[in-house]
Amino acid sequence: MAHDKAGKTMEGDNMRAELASPIFRLNTLARHLGVSCSLSPPSPMESQFPNQAIYPSPTAGFSGGSVFANVVQAPEDPILGVTVAYNKDPSRMKVNLGVGAYRTEEGKPLVLNVVRRAEQMLVNNPSRVKEYLPITGLADFNKLSAKLIFGADSPAIQENRVVTVQCLSGTGSLRVGGEFLAKHYHERTIYIPQPTWGNHTKVFMLAGLSVKTYRYYDPTTRGLNFKGLLEDLSMAPSGAIVLLHACAHNPTGVDPTVGQWEQMRLLIRSKGLLPFFDSAYQGFASGSLDADAQSVRMFAADGGECLTAQSYAKNMGLYGERVGALSIVCKYADVAVRVESQLKLVIRPMYSNPPIHGASIVATILKDKEMYYEWTVELKAMANRIINMRQQLFDALRARGTPGDWTHIIKQIGMFTFTGLNKEQVAFMTQEYHVYLTSDGRISMAGLNSKTVPHLADAIHAAVTRIK
Ligand code: PLA
Predict the structure, then answer these.
(1) Average pLDDT value for residue range 150-177
(2) Which of 82, 134, 228, 456 would disulfide-bridge 215, Cβ 3.0–4.6 Å?
(3) Ligand 1: residues within 6 Å at CB?
(4) What is the pLDDT of residue 240?
(5) Helical residues (DSSP H) of 249-316, grouped into ranges
(6) CB under 8 Å to 350, separation ≥6 — which residues?
(7) Which atom of ligand 1 has the smallest separation from the CA of 196?
(8) How does pLDDT run across 102-129, given as a tens digit for each residue?
(9) Is 59 exposed, middle or buried (0-12, 13-18, 19+ CB in 10 A)?
(10) How far apart are CA 165 and CA 354, in angstroms?
(11) CA distance 262 to 51
(12) Order of strands across the sheet with 241-245?
């Protein structure tokens, strides 16, 4: 007789299975009621457990159609779908300028030296284990992330008014912040800039907020529509949440000046609006971590409240590690304690607790003076390479005599150039030149290199001269 590990007989298992089967139970019931009935499945399907039959049913493998037959094909994501299309293209001249992912001059993804070094240290440390992190993430990482964005001497941090929770990169931080606000904040409307990163609307809608826009970009000047921005924010209902890109606005590459930020702060504070900063590019705009955090620090310094979503995807090149943080600056320390307790209730049923590896890399780098310095040097090199690509593309278009004013390529900030090319021109460039970019005409400058600049310039030149 066959025995399993626990020493039970397999025969006994089969018998138990038979006793538990619905047919056995129905036949038993019929016998008890005194009716003559002998049920057997119409076409019993022998499963791996003999004596257990499966009735034909909508979810059974051998009958009927799929219960998901009515699911319609969804379109690809407007940004990540560009990479999907690029990967399918067999052309050798293809260039992917869709997603904002940094590439080297050789067109390769980059893992920073300092990140490799931190990873080595982590791997070589035998005391490191793989236990769950707390719901709020790695404590060191949270403290250091708050310091990075608000500044080492931030009064809000010193007064224990800042709650920071580790989240799944920038997107996860925005989503957790959004869900917290939908549950605990009285005004559930969030104003996002027009245009903005395409995912903002979906993240906040699914978090339970109502999404409205404020004017941000003026296509005629290819600059900030500051008048429109102030008008729209002053019309927003008191208490409304306002999403602000901390720096390197995506997709436009247009940021307010310090003076304009100050005017925005005065308006936002006077109207009791709640600022929610998205900081996905700290250090990537100017090359300086402090300069790129200035907008956030101006708001944190006035003693008022705000939220900040940080991402280490771009500035530390940790894209797929999904490392980020949500900070909520409160007016009082006791409020911050209660806010943290509620953030835990948002996170626990969503993903329980965040992953350990990427946050450990960040914490290792941020807490070591020398590694931190090495990071800033590598970060500046990435920012400079992008600035250099702007100049090269601008020069290449000028050399071709491409119609139009292309100075915005060198004026815009951060990872992207918002070219002003229309949908048809973009489609033409993809079809004829195998240059991939988002349909709004946004180009990821970080994906360019000296070898691909002439090809892109040819594509743009042909697009603007042939398609109006
Ligand atoms: N916020 C802004 C403004 C972003 O541009 C991005 C990423 C994120 C948040 C989220 O980044 P994270 O979750 O990876 O930290 N935007 C990219 C990628 C670079 C993307 O769309 O997911 C972009 O190409 O626009």
Answers:
(1) 97
(2) 228
(3) 79, 99-100, 169-171, 197, 199, 245, 250, 278, 280, 311, 313, 324
(4) 98
(5) 258-270, 294-301
(6) 175, 176, 179
(7) 3
(8) 999 999 999 999 999 999 999 999 999 9
(9) exposed
(10) 9
(11) 76
(12) 162-168, 323-329, 306-311, 274-279, 241-245, 189-194, 210-215
